[in-house]
Structures are given as C-alpha cells and as structure tokens.
Predict the 3D structure of the following.
Amino acid sequence: MVGLLLLRQNRADVVFFATSVRPCSGAGGTLDLQTLILNLQHFWAEQGCVIQQPLDLEVGAGTMHPETFLRVLGPEPYRVAYVQPSRRPADARYGENPFRLGRHLQLQVILKPSPDDVQNLYLRSLEALGIDPAVHDIRFEEDNWESPTLGAWGVGWQVLLDGMEVTQFTYFQQSGGIELAPISAELTYGLERIAMFLGRKDSIYDIEWGGGVRYGKIRLVDERESSTYGFEVADVEMLRRHLGDWESEAQRCLDHDPPLVIPALEATLKTSHLFNLMDARGAVSVTERVGLISRVRRNAIRAAKAYVAQREELGHPLGICLEEME
Amino acid sequence: MTAFLLELRTEEIPANALPGARRQLADSLSRALTEAGFDGITVRVLSTSRRLVVIVHSLPERQADRTERLTGPPIRIAFAEDGSPTKAAEGFAKKAGVAIDQLETESTDKGDYLAATVVHEGRATTEILSETVPAVLAAMRFPKMMRWGLGQHYFVRPVHGLVALFDDAVVPMEIFGVAAGRKTVGHRVHGADSFDVVSIAGFADTMAERGVLIDPEERRRVLDERAVELAAETGCRVHPDDALVAEHVELVEYPGLLRGSIDEEYLELPREVVITTLRYHQKCLILEHEDGSLAPHFLTVIDRRDDPEGLVRQGNEWVIGARLADARFFFEEDCKRKMEELAGELGRLEFHRVLGSVAAKAERVGELAVALSNQLGLDLDSEVVRRAAHLVKTDLLTNMVVEFPELQGIMGGHYLRLEGADDQVWTAARDHYRPSGFEGEIPESELGRLLGVADRLDTLVGLFGVGEIPSGSKDPLGLRRAAQAVVKILADARWELDLNDAIRTAAAGVGAVVETPASEITEVVHDFMADRVRRYLTDMVEVGSDAADAVMAAGWGQLPELVARARALDAVRTSPQMRALSLAFKRVKNITEDAPEPLVDPGLFETDEERELYAASEVFATRLGECVGARRFDDAFASMGELAEVLDRFFIEVLVMCDDQKLRDNRVALLTGIRREFLTLADLSRLQVDGGNA
C-alpha cells in the first residue's frame, strides 16, 4: 500500500526490523554504520562500479534513482553503487518502534549485464562487512518483485544471513513496460538492519553511526517530527495541488521536443512522493488511489521510453553489451 | 548396460518449483528415451536447491539395429530379357542402399516384385543423449522463469555447470551457453572447490563428502531424525509441520538443524502470534511441551553441517527475539485502543471499489445476519448481531493484523476478550473466517456461524454483482472457498436454512451499490453454489457423483436434509432394485415429458397391472409424506424400491401409448403422479447403471 513508485513493495526494503551479522571482535570491534557504507562502496568500486551519490529528491527506494530506473534500460553496460535515503512516510513510527523508520538507508548496486559470478561477488561483499561466509548460514530464498505501477518486474531472492534478511537480490526482467536485455542484477542492502544485526542492538537508535555518535542522536528527533508531519500536519490540499502541478510538469517535459527525460522523471518522482505523503495522512480515498497510481505510471513509462529513444539517438555512449562481450 | 549421469548446476531454484521440476524432468526424459527405442530404462531425478541431477540406468551402448523390408518394382520390369538389371532395378537398389545382387524377390497375388531388406544400424547412445537431453532441458517450464546476463537464455535461474557422463565418458552437449564436462563443485561452505566426477556409481557419496545430499528423501530423513533428537534433549516435542519440513528439504543442499532459545517472556503473547512469527516469518519449527503449550525453544534448518562458532544460532536467536519484540510492540500498541472505539474507523478501510468500505460491508452483513437469524429462529438479539458484524472486522485496523494478515480474526478474538466483550462476540470474531473452504472446524458459537455465513454470502453476491467471477483456475478472491465454507457451515451446523432464499436476500442487500439486477446475481450465485454443494456431497459426504446429481435434481437448498437424502440414496444406489427403478424411471420421465397435471380416473383402468401400480403409488405417496417429514430417507428410498417390480410389470403388460386417447391420458397421468412423488427425493434417471447412463 505504501509507495507508488516504490519498486519493491515487500517487506525487505522496509527497515522494520532489526538486523544482521557477525560482531567483529578484535581490532575495531563491530563495524559502525559509516564503516559499513565505506567498506561496501570501496568493495563495489573495486568491481568497477561508478560510486554515485543519492538522488537529491525524496524517493521510496533506491530503485527509483535514475541510475537504476533508467540505466537498466537499453543495451549499454553499466555498474553503479550508491546509498539512497528512502522515505516511506506510512512506515514512520514517531521514533517509538525500535525496528521501524520513516526514512532508512539502502545501499543499491546495479550490475549490468549481470555477471556470471554475481552471487560470489555478493558473498565477497559480505566479507567486506566482516562477515565470513565460512561460519555463517547464508541463504538465497525466492522473493520476486513486481511493480505494475512501473510495468516492471524481476526475479530473485531475499538473502538471509543466519535467518536475518539482509539483502534483496533481483534480476530485472522488465521495466517501464520494456522487456530488458541485457539483464541487470540489483542488490539492495538494508543498511540499518545490517548494522543492527552485526552489533546485536535492540534498537535502531542504538546503532553506532560513526565518530562515536549513535544513530538516535542524529535521527530520532527527525523521525519524530517527520511522523508528526506525515500523519498529522501535512497540508493535504497543498499536496494534492502540487501532485497535479508536478504531473503536468512531467507531461510538459515529455511533450517537449526533444523530450526532457531526467526532468520528466524527477517531476514524476515528486508526484510519487506527494502521493505517499497523502496516503500516510489517510487522505487518499479508495477510488482515488487507483487513478493516482495510473497517472504516475503513465509518466514513468513514458519517461522510460523517452530514455531508450534518447540513448539510441546518442548512439549509446556507454557502448553496447553484446559488442563488448564479443 | 550402462548408466548416464546429468547434473545441471544453477543458482538457487525456488523451493516450490523443485518437486514439479523433478517430475517434469523424469517424465519428459523417460518419454524421449523410450521414443528413441530404449526400453526398460530407469530414470531417477534428484535435486538440491542448486542442482538438478538425473541418473538413468540400464541404457545399452547403442540403439538396437532395426530392419526394414522395402518392396520395389515388379520383377518383369526390373530385369531385361538377358537378365541384366534395368534402370528400375538399379534405382531401387540405390534407394534401398543395397547391392543389386542382394535384392530379393517377393511373391504376391499381383505377381513377383523386387524387395530388399535394409538394416538400419542403431546409433550410439551417446549421440542420442547429446541431442535429447538439451532438448528436454530447454523445454522445461517453471511457474516463473527468467533471463540473465545478456538475456539469451531462459530458465528458472541462471545455469552454471553441466556434467554429462555416459559410463565414464563425457557426453558432448551444450545448453544455456554451458558445455558439458565432468567438473562440478560441492557445497558452498563444505566443498566449494571444483573437482572431476569420475564415477556415476560413486557420485552421491562423493557429493555427500563435499556437503551435498543430492537425494531429497535422504535430506528429509536426516531432518526428521535430527528434529526428534534435538527436541528430546529438552524434554519437548516438535510441533508437527510437514509442509514446512518439506519446504526446508528443497531449500538446502545439506539439511543442518539447530536449536535455539526464545526469551520466556515472549510466550506470554497470544500463542498464534508466537507461532506466526516463528513459523511463517522465520520458517522455524516450534517445540512444545507434553501438554501442547509452547516451549521456549525453536528448531531452525540451516544449509550447512555445523555452526562452528555458534554464530548461526546466535544470529537466529537475535532475529527471532527482534521479531517477537516487534510483535509485542504491536500487541501492546493495539491494546491501548478499545475495539469498540476502533470499530468506528472501519469506514477508512476499503473492501471493494464499488462495494464500498468495510464499514459499509459490515452494515450489510449485519442486516443479512439478522434476517437469517430470524428465519432460523436463533436466540440472538438483533442489535448484538448488528454490532458484532462490525466488531469482528475491527481487527483489520490493528497493527498486528496489518503486519500479519493471516492473524485476522484470531487477533480480534484476543483483543475483544481482553477488553471484556461477550463470549459469543469474541469467539465469533475469532472463528468467523473458519472454515477455509471445506477444511477445518466451523465456528463454535451460533453468532460466529451466522456471521460467517452472512459475511461470505455478502462477498459472493457483491463480487459476482461487479463481475469479479472466478474462471477456470483463476479465483484470486477465494470465492470458491467462500461458497464452500457456507455449505460446510450450514451442513455441519444442521441449519435448516434455505440457501437459495439466503442468496436472494443477500443479493437484495447489495442492490443499492451494484448495477446488476438482484435476480441476475441470484441466478449466477445459485449456479455457482450448486457446484460447491455437489462437490460437498461427492468429496465430503462421499456419495457417488450420480447419486449427488440425482438428489440435487430434487432440490438442494436445505443442506442437512440434502445430505441425509444423499446418504440414503447412496447406500442403495447400486442395489438391483434401484438399478431397475432407475431404468423404469427413465421411461417414466420420457413418457411424461410435457404432460399436464395428473388426474387419474381409476375407472378407466383396464389391467390388473394398472390397478396394482395405482394402489402401490397411493401407498407410496402416504409413506413418502411420513418418511420425509421425519427425515427417514432410508425408509423413503426403501418404499420407493418396492415400486420397482410393480413398475416393471406395468411396463411389460401395459401399452401406455395406446390408440385410445382417454386410456392413454389416464395412464400418462398415473405415471406423472409417480414421477412427481419420486422427484421430491431424487431424479433416479441420473443414476449410473450398467450399460451407460440410464
């Protein structure tokens, strides 16, 4: 029910829950949140990923970042990794639930085309977090993902580490209504839950962020305020108005000759977030929901198609997978 | 005889796809090899989460040679006068692939012809395998398939390795971009280095040494034994869960099992919350004490032999602790608000776009329930019923049910009980989703049963009214199960409620929100329900399908009555008397088709057989009335059976369709009366008797 453009609507993405693995004993002790991030980024940089920065817009998941949503389209190879703060207003809990957040951090990796040894690469990335697969139970259990809103679906697993879900692993099959080839592998690490699990913390707010500062000291007030805003204060009429405005703006960008792909997608992402806010506020009636979702989808799909055309026009500046492989 | 080994290594295949994949692979490979002429082979398919393994035994080195007899041109044109072969003979020899001097003569009625015996040499088995196996693998279908990498290949998960050995030689083949060889790997943790498979016979043992048990049955055995051991160590037993263990068997390469502990304080949560958290969300087996109460232990399956540093157990315990803490958080949050008060917010939950909110639905269900309650003469206060229709749905708004939808009803029961609701009400909330289809117990209380029936009838007429009708295997909203549950509740509760009236009342209830006319909805739901009722009779009451059809043709609205009638007929349906009666009744039906109201004039009878039948039918009618009133259907069918001989004699001696119109009409009237009496019990012509459908 939550996000409209959220590429995944399953639990995996929601840090509703605590999380993950091996208390790194010895020098340095448990890895703190920022070291987790730095280690993962370093690892994926070594695998040839572009280390991108978060999208500077409110989104519900890393999948909505153009570096994923658009880059998986078309024949160009690409590898990218980035952290994406992911907002889900309806999941907020006033900072009172020790396992759930209205805004959590995902580390998102896209490998296009999915390499043959992607599972091994992933397992090695865990080693970068101090998790030695030799002494843990690591499982890949089926968990597929589908977003009718985006005309997108993928096949994959949730990765369980000693019973804890730490990553979503997806082979994208279709996006924006477009059948994909090459196929991208998407890895989404739930950072807070991994940090919680590794540190065996009973609350997200007790995670060590870094520099001796705890997560709660940095985030608790904003979780409380954002919850109050999302559930009680947000001006529904303003949100509804802006949703309409940004929808028109997205359409204008798409109707522009040539279509302005990124501005169109960004405007569409804004409509998605506005929808999520209205929804958290309980302001979306049941009949309205269907209509709003399809309005957002229309623009997302158009943006995807425009992107494909644009890249073709540009002669696929990043190359073409098939040619590279030969 | 030689063996063939195939191992296809993949990334983790979904557990629910594996049993089907094994069957599919065994079937299609057996078929393909049989078609290639290999008889008496055995095909065995095994699997783990990361590989499919096929072992074929009793394969010969080659296909058997096959001889074929070809007939050529007549001898007279095959040889010239001087005995030398003509072009015709040469052509035939060439086509048959034999030398001229090996041609034979075949004598037939039409004369002598040239003939040849051609021996098709059997091909090497290896050669057949290299063609057949890739084709069979490529044709495999899974519930959900995918592409990977550059997107050229299509399978359930990416493929990484292929071992194909015929005896000890590699069978050359390629599939999904992978060439066959003899290299494979063992378990990710216990045997990740690649190695050569040298013997088919030793394959299973070699894999076991490397941490992989390729036989699902063996994994099951190991799990079952280990579970008993681990439970016994704590003096507990495993809360049985066959389906969960079966799933674990498919999820691993090695079936490790370990025991963890739960903080006792969490066992204070409602039992179902603990079970749901452990079982559905962590796939853990739960241990229980002798008395069935939950023990503070769980078993979890791990894909490895051991837990060398205790981290796996620690991690699982931590996760389960966190999950339970989360559940407790929800439980405590929910307990802060009264269900009575929360019920007022059901309007914000949508039931269906057209059919409105859950509050609107509860409103309709309340009215329908009151109407049904009045018909049944139940001792329930109408206001309590109306209020309960809302209260039983209120848990849909609680944190716990939003999080764990499968706990709907159960949580409502707990919360209502905790806030002191009436026993009827909280048990109704707990039970009203029961049973699921024909499975399970019906609700304990009358209120629970009543709301269970009313809720589902409203769902059925509402969704049919907006065109959400199940078709084929598609029934996303579970309407078949809903209808089945209605049938089951009425039958088990022995409620004398006319189901057709109830459907009509329910359809009228949604009249204000759907456009489809109530009469139309009633009609389709009636037919839909009739199918469920028939199913109930055949599957649950276990009467023959012909007996089910026969009794239903005489009306099926009153479930307890129908069940009794069906049982009675089923008990006698294969007796000689009933068979005879079934055939006779078929004639009765044919003759009396379109006949007007019967008006029998005994004065017009000419034969004893007519008089005898008339007298017998009068006696039968009286007895039928008594038996039906008392629900003694065994007696009713027994009386009916007594008419068999009389009817037979009648048909032998009396010509119904005689020329005299008056006599004829009188005889038809006599039979029409009998037909009508019979049809209050069953349409016997639907019974299956020897020699086809009578």
About this structure: The longest helix of chain B spans residues 311-335. The radius of gyration of chain B is 36 Å.
